[in-house]
Each structure stands twice: as C-alpha cells, then as structure tokens.
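Translate sequence into structure tokens.
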Amino acid sequence: MKSKIYLLILMGALFAINGCQTPDELLPPVAHSGLNSVTAYFTDAAGNYLDQDKGRFTVTVTEGNTNIVIPVPYYFPEESDNPVTAAMLSRMRMRANLDDNVTVAPPLLYMDLTQPSVITVTTQRKEKVQYTISSLILKSSACVIEEFTLPLAGDAILTGIITESTKTISLIASEPIAPCTATIKLSPHATISPDPRTTTLDYNNTQTFVVTAHDGTSATYTTSKSVPAKLPAGIRPGSEKLLFAKLISALGTATGVGVANNVNGLAATLNHIVLSTRGNSSIVIDAKTGDLIGTGTVDVSITGGGLNNFYTTADDGGNIFICNLVNNRTSGAFKIYKQTSATATPEVYISCTLPGDGGRKMSVQGNIATNAIITVPFKNADVADKFARWQVINGTLVSQTPDIVTVTGMHWHNGSTANVYNVDLVATSDVDLNADYFIARYGQGTQAKPNPVAGQSDIYSLLDWMNGSTNAVRATLVDVNQNFVANAVDYTVFNNTPYVLVNYVNAYNWGQADRAYLVNAASTGAFTAAFNAYGGPGVDGAIEWACPLNTYGAQAAGTTNGNSSGDVAFVQSADGNFLYVYFMFANGYVVGYQFDCFDI
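Result follows.
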C-alpha cells in the first residue's frame, strides 16, 4: 500500500513540474516574410475611395524581392483625359495581405507614393524584413478595336464580328458596301491608322489598320467582307456580346422623367428600345448603344398617364403597344394603344371590357401589318387563371372582343382573389391559335415541388410550356427558391431553333438573383429538371445562356425592386444573322446582348 502512495506522490510531482513548462512555440519550418500582396487605392481629399474597383492597384510580393512597385495608370479613370497627379499619389489608401501572426510597421493606412517609403514586416519567426514601396506611372499598352460598325442604307448598320485571337474583323454582307466611314471603339488613348472614322474606305476589299497603344505597343487588324456559312441550328456558342447596360434611374434623370421603380415594360425594335414610365412620356433609347434618342422621351399623354400607361411591348414589325392596368376589377375599358414607330403618337387600337384584373403584361407574337396573336393574362372573381386573346389576320384585327382562354393545372393567383402581379404569357405562332404557349409565373402548381422544404410555402416560380390545344402543361422548368420571381417571357425561332427568354427577379435582398435566361425550346425533355435561379448554363440542358448573376438588378444598383418588376424581349436582324436579347429590372438596368449563328 505504501508503495502505491509513493508512486502517486511521484506522479503528481512530475505533473506539476511539467504543467509549469512553457509550451513550444509553433514556427513555420521555412523562413517566409508573410507579406503576400500590397494594394493601393486612389482617394479624394477627404480620404474616401475614388473607385474601389477601377482605382485599386495590387502587387503580389515574391519571396526575396523587397522592392514593391505599385503600377498606376497615366490617366484616371483610364478612359478619361485626366492625368494622375502628385496630389492623388500623395494620399493613397494602403492595405496589406498578411499571413497569421505577421505584423507590419508603421501600419499601412495612407501613404505618400510620390516618393519611396519603407515598411518593416515582422515574420512568424520574429524576423524583421524591410520593404520599399514606390509607385510607377505607366502608359496603357492596350491596343484593341473593341467595336466596329458601318452604316448601310436607311438607318441600318453592319456590325463587324471581331475575332481578337486572329485580329480580324468579319463584315457579314452579301450586297456591295458603299464606300463609307466607320464607327469604332478603341482601347482608351489608343490611335488607329488609317482612321476609319474620318477616312472613307471601300470595305468590299480587305482593309488593314494599325492600332497603337498609348505606350507605343501596336497591333494590326484586317477586315474581310464575306458571308460565312451558318450553323445548322441555333446560336454560335460564345457569340454573346454585351451591347450596353444602362442604369434606368440615370436615363430618367437625363430626361426629367422619374422612372426607376415604375418601369414595367420594355418594347424592343430593330433600332429602338422604349421603356414605360407610368407617366405622360416614355423613354426611348438606341437599341445598339443604349443612348437616349433625341430628347430621350416620346409624348404618350393621350393615354392619360399613371395606370393608363402601365405596360409596353412591340411586335415584329416595329409597332409599339401600350396598355392600361385594370386593377381590382374597377370599372372602365381595357385599352391597347398602338404607335407605328417608337416616336409616333399613340392611337387606340383595342378598347374592350376585360372580365378581370389584367394589363400588367401583354405579348404580341407576329406583326399586326400581316398576322399576329395578342395575349393578356388576367384573373377574375372565380379565381380561375385566364388570358384574353385577340387575332390579327392579313393586317385586320378580327374583333375588339377577345377570346377568353382558361388554363389548367397551374395557378398564378396564389390561391386568392389577389391581382395578377407576376405572370406573362406568349404565343409560339402568329396564326395558329392552337399552337403552344409559354408562361412565366410565380404561383402554385399541381406538380410536385422539387426538393420540398418542411414548412416552406408551395408557391414558387416556374416557366411552363403549355399545350395550346388542351391548355394543360406539357413541361416545366422550376425555380426551387420561393424568393425569386419569374414574371416575363418572350419567344422566337432563330436559325431553325425555338428559344424562350425568361427572367428571375429578386424583390428584396434575399440572396442573389435578377437574371435573364436563354432557354432552348427544341424539346420538352430538357424542361423536366429543376431550374435553379443561382445557376447558369449547364444547370439544365435547356439553358444555353444566362446573364451574369446579380449584375443588372436593383440589388446590383444598391436598392430594391419591391414590385418584382422586369421584362424581356427578343429581336432578330432583318437577315436573320443576329439575335438581340433585351431585358430590364425595375430600379436596376436595361441591358442589350447580341448573339449570332455563324459557323466561324
């Protein structure tokens, strides 16, 4: 027994001795300064960032190099003619990317980069390394032709397809091109010789241009007029080109029209985009540049403004349509106004009694000068989901009174007598009333919801492919997150392939959404999978393209889109070579993209 007691005492003593020892310090096996990168930002006199994106300059620190040189552009912003000044360099906001337990002295807050400055970095091994930080103003080496267009007869333009890897500009035209000057966009501060903006050239023959950057770097481009073969079907992968992205609030500011959250509709033609405003004027911009046309507005006061100028769309012939909102089953006629062009005075085209709430969306498939089918979704007191339909045959409206069609197997009324807030419907034919339809909606459905979550609402966003003969759903793409709203859809057939354009809108700051999707509608089979608003191309076999996530919506503009309002539209070039995709989000941006179908 005594031996056991002695053993316990001895173990306790050893534990006490060892417990008082200082633990070994964990040090990296190899000496490393721990300074990974240094970033400098331009600031104003008050120390505020001038632009945290364009005005940010980062240098990665390589081991053994203690001389850190921050490259700064000659002009800021680079596309401006404003040289960087000594005053700007004297108040650079600095940040360092450090490993854990690494310090820098003096602390990197602000630094005068008009002269070298020395900092001391204390590594994880408590070693001190000195670095010298300085700046170097560099002229741009960019020498790229970013855009190249030629004028054609009338208001038409020919957009060159620029292949940067080969420095070639393909001019797709079968007819001779009259000698002309070009409209181009170069890298900031680059020059071009000869200058096609001021020199009239014959583009039926190959032309060669030398683009010289601000620092003297050069690149040579050649033009080639040809008619390349088209792909057998569909768009050329990777052909998407951003034409413009304009902040809607800025357009309203320029025209004196308050529109940011009241833009409900987008009418797109070959040359113009018209935005509804719920006012006495609509906003008109160029369909290729997004720039305001003339004063930027067209007088539509004949509609009465307010809810009488609620939504706008266009047909394939360039006619613009405006409809009023018949809300809460109020009395009064439902009216559709027609403009023969984007800047023409509206005139009443249809006036009727709409037996329910509608007018938030309207679609015109075809051209009212020949054949067209007009659809307006609505809901009435019996809580049935219906749409009104008019037909135009050989340029004549068949009747002012619409056909009333009841859809089956789906709901866009959320199970109540509430207004039709988020639903859009488009026909796939301009002559066949029994052809299929596509419906974007936020509501309920008879089909099972993918990946159901306990306690979560069964209300969700869908893109439905509706059988025009039975008015039942043939296939559905489903957004599995109820916070995202699908409320706009358009349809076209481009290069032998049917396409659907649909949006998903994030009303408030619930994660990320605000996206437009280009969906291949050649087969119902690809429409059976779940459609995730966070995803993009490849999420579902039917989705060929999606715009960048959270880039063009209200959230990207720093605000919200409380009405979940947005719109989408297709336009094709007269020769069928280009497909234009337009979309907008209220309180966000109006955006244009171009696609082609060339086998190049």
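Note: The longest strand covers residues 128-138.
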